Amino acid sequence: MAHAFASLETAGPVAVWVIVLSFIFVECAFIFGLFLPGDSLLFAAGVVLATHNSELSAWLLSLAALIVAVVGNQVGYFIGRGTGTRVLARKGGKVLNRQNLKRAGDFLDRRGFWAVVLARWIPWIRTLAPMIAGAARMDLRRFTLATTIGAIAWVPTLVLAGYYGAGVLQTFPWLETAAIVVSVAFFLGGTGWGIWRYRQEMAKPIDETSEDLEHVSHPQAR
Q1: Do the beta carbons of residue 179 and residue 166 sit within 8 Å?
Q2: Residues of the chain with pLDDT under 50
Q3: Alpha helices in the chain (DSSP H)
Q4: What's the whole-model pTM score?
Q5: What are phi and psi of 206, to 5 degrees?
Q6: Domain VTT: where (predicted)?
Q7: Who's near 41: CB < 8 A, 6+ residues apart?
């Protein structure tokens, strides 16, 4: 475990970029992303980049990850538009169940445009919102604007908070190391838990009694 932490701590900016952009795209585009720790990943990326004094890389990564998050949500939108949401619900699912899908649908129905913006900060809704918006035939231009605003508020905030937060700790080497270890451990643990949880959820049969959320077409969401 110590060797793994050391490898990640000394990982170059290129490795950080590859990991972050890959995970953010998956989290924003596909249902598997529902179980990935996107928030902690962005923060941890900033912390690791701070150890290399890569300020420019942190800003550029913020921009690149922002774009990837928007593109990922576009993919999720068209997946929802093409397949609907009924097939997502699983019998006995802890996360993918009728109740959670309905809650996410109701959230989008009530808030419309701003639901997509705010969804960036709500882990499981972050992945479901684009699919539900697509199934509900939310106007694509409004959806794109909303998801872009959300990404602007989400991605740079976490990456730069990690970067500059770690920079403040550089005067306390032991505390900086502790911050890196905790960030990386949280990311690794969250990813491992997410993979296990995804396998558990998808092993359950589709809930045939679940209704598609295409009815979520309140004028506010159009």
Answers
A1: yes
A2: 1-8, 215-222
A3: 2-9, 13-29, 38-51, 55-83, 98-111, 113-118, 123-135, 140-168, 173-202
A4: 0.77
A5: -65, 135
A6: 36-163
A7: 19, 20, 23, 24, 187
Q: How many residues does the chain have?
A: 222
CB atoms within 10 A of CB 217: 15
Q: What is the pLDDT of residue 214?
A: 53
44 residue type, one letter: A
- What pLDDT score was predicted for residue 4? 39
**Amino acid letter, residue 55:** E
Sequence-distant contacts of 186-189: CB under 8 A, at least 24 apart: 186/37, 186/40, 186/44, 187/37, 187/40, 187/41, 187/44, 188/4
Q: Looking at this protein, which amino acid is placed at residue 104?
A: A
Tokens 């969250």: give the residue.
190
